[in-house]
C-alpha cells in the first residue's frame, strides 16, 4: 500500500471518555452502545480504533448526511490523516485506510471519472439475466442440502450466492479453488477474524485480479471487467484492479449479510410468519427493514477533515479521521422520535450518500441478488424454521459488518 505523504500532527486528541470500538457486548448489541454514546456525547462521539488510535464516530442521521454531502470539508484521501506516524504497517484496518489508486480514495473530477467507468460497466449488467442467473445459482445451492432436512445458511447459501453471482458478472469462473480463495481473502481483508492476516489477504486479492485484468485485456468478453478495460476513459490496469476490488467487496460480503439478516428477520419475527410461506408478499418489506435496523455495513471508515471545522458541536481538526456510523444514523431518534422505524421508505443511509455513495446501479443489482436468494429459498423450502432458539444466534465479531456467524435451519427433506 502507498505510504502516506501527509506528515503527522497532534490531531484528534485521545479523549478521557473515548469509547473503544471493540468487545463482545458491542459486537453483539451495537444498538445499545449507540444509544449510550448519544446520551453521553450527542451526534458525534470520540472513539478509539485498534491500538487506541483516536477517531470520531458520527452517530446522527443529519450529521452523516452532512459529512457525505460536503467533500470539500470531509474528503476521502486518507493521506491527510494526522495519525499516520503511530500506525504500524500491519495495522488490522490498513486495508480500509491505506491509500490506494482506487475510486474509493479519489476526489473531485478524478473521482467522477473513475465512478463513471464503474457505473457504465454495471449498467451493462442485464437485471433480468442477473435474476435468472441468481435463481439458477440458488437452485444449485439448495439442491446440495435439500435432501438432508437441515443446513447452515450463512456459509452454504447467503454468502455463496452473491459470491458466485458477482464473480460471474466480473468474468471469473463461479467455482474453483482460485475463486474460493479470492472470496475468502476478501472476507479476511474487510472483516478479519482472530488469527487472520488482513494485509496479506488483501495482497492476494490484488494479485488474483491483476491476472484477471491481464486475461480480459487479451480476450475481452461481455462482463464488467472487460467493459472497464474498453471504456474510453482509458483506466490503467492497476486502476481497474483497485476499482474491481471495490466492486466485488461491496457486492459480496454486504449482500451476503443482507440475505442472512433478512432470513433471520423472517424466521424470528412473528409479523412476517403468516406471510413467509406465501412467498413474496413480505420479502421486500423485510429486505428494506433490515437496511434500516440491521444494515450489513454498520460503520464505514472513513473521511478525513480537510481543515478545522465543526460537526455536531465538536471541534474537528484538520486531518482527523471521521467514521460514518451508518447503522446508528439509520436509527437516530431525531428521525424516528417515537422509536418506530418506518421500513416502508428507503431514505436509509445503508448505501451511504453523496458522490461517494454506492454507485448506481449497484444497489439495484444487490437487491436482485438478495431478493432472488430469499424468495427462491422460501419457495423451495416453505416450512423452513430455525434449528436453534433465536437468542442462540450469534453475530460475527465485527464493528464494521453486521452478519450472523451461522444460521442453522431445519425443514422437510426434499427428495428429488
Automatic annotation (TrEMBL):
An MF annotation (GO) of this entry: iron ion binding
InterPro entries: Cyt_P450, Cyt_P450_B, Cyt_P450_sf
Gene3D superfamilies named among the record's database cross-references: Cytochrome P450 (1.10.630.10)
Domain of life: Bacteria
One Pfam match: p450
Record's signal peptide: none
Family of this protein: Belongs to the cytochrome P450 family.
Name the record gives this protein: Cytochrome
Organism: Streptomyces solincola
Amino acid at each position: 500500500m502507498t505510504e502516506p505523504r501527509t506528515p503527522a500532527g497532534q490531531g484528534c486528541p485521545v479523549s478521557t471518555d473515548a469509547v473503544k470500538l471493540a468487545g463482545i457486548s458491542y459486537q453483539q448489541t451495537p444498538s445499545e452502545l449507540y444509544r449510550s454514546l448519544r446520551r453521553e456525547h450527542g451526534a458525534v462521539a470520540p472513539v478509539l480504533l485498534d491500538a487506541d488510535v483516536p477517531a470520531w464516530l458520527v452517530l446522527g442521521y443529519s450529521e452523516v448526511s452532512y459529512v457525505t454531502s460536503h467533500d470539500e470539508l470531509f474528503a476521502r484521501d486518507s493521506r491527510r490523516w494526522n495519525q499516520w506516524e503511530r500506525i504500524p504497517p500491519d495495522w488490522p484496518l490498513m486495508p480500509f485506510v491505506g491509500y490506494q489508486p482506487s475510486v474509493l480514495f479519489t476526489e473531485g473530477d478524478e473521482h467522477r471519472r473513475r465512478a463513471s467507468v464503474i457505473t457504465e460497466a454495471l449498467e451493462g449488467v442485464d437485471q433480468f439475466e442477473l435474476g435468472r442467473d441468481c435463481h439458477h445459482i440458488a437452485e444449485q445451492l439448495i439442491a446440495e442440502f435439500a435432501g438432508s432436512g437441515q443446513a447452515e445458511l450463512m456459509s452454504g447459501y447467503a454468502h455463496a450466492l452473491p459470491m458466485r453471482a458477482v464473480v460471474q458478472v466480473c468474468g471469473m469462473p463461479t467455482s474453483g479453488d482460485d475463486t474460493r480463495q479470492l472470496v475468502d481473502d476478501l472476507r479476511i481483508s474487510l472483516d478479519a477474524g482472530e488469527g487472520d492476516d488482513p494485509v496479506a489477504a488483501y495482497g492476494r486479492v490484488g494479485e488474483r485480479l491483476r491476472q484477471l485484468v491481464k486475461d480480459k485485456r487479451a480476450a475481452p468478453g461481455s462482463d464488467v471487467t472487460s467493459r472497464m478495460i474498453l471504456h474510453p476513459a482509458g483506466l490503467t490496469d492497476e486502476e481497474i484492479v483497485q476499482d474491481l476490488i471495490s466492486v466485488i467487496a461491496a457486492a459480496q460480503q454486504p449482500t451476503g449479510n443482507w440475505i442472512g439478516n433478512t432470513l433471520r428477520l423472517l424466521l424470528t419475527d412473528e409479523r412476517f410468519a403468516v406471510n413467509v410461506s406465501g412467498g413474496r408478499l413480505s420479502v421486500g418489506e423485510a429486505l428494506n427493514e433490515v437496511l434500516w435496523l440491521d444494515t450489513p455495513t454498520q460503520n464505514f471508515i472513513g473521511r478525513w477533515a480537510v481543515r478545522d471545522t465543526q460537526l455536531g458541536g465538536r471541534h474537528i481538526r484538520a486531518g482527523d479521521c471521521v467514521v460514518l456510523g451508518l447503522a446508528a444514523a439509520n436509527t437516530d431518534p431525531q428521525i424516528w422520535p417515537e422509536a418506530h422505524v418506518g421500513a416502508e421508505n428507503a431514505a436509509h443511509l445503508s448505501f451511504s450518500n453523496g458522490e461517494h455513495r454506492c454507485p448506481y446501479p449497484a444497489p439495484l443489482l444487490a437487491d436482485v441478488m438478495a431478493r432472488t436468494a430469499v424468495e427462491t429459498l422460501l419457495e423451495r423450502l416453505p416450512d423452513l424454521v430455525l434449528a436453534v432458539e433465536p437468542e442462540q444466534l450469534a453475530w460475527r465479531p465485527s464493528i464494521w459488518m453486521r452478519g450472523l456467524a451461522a444460521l442453522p435451519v431445519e425443514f422437510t427433506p426434499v427428495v428429488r
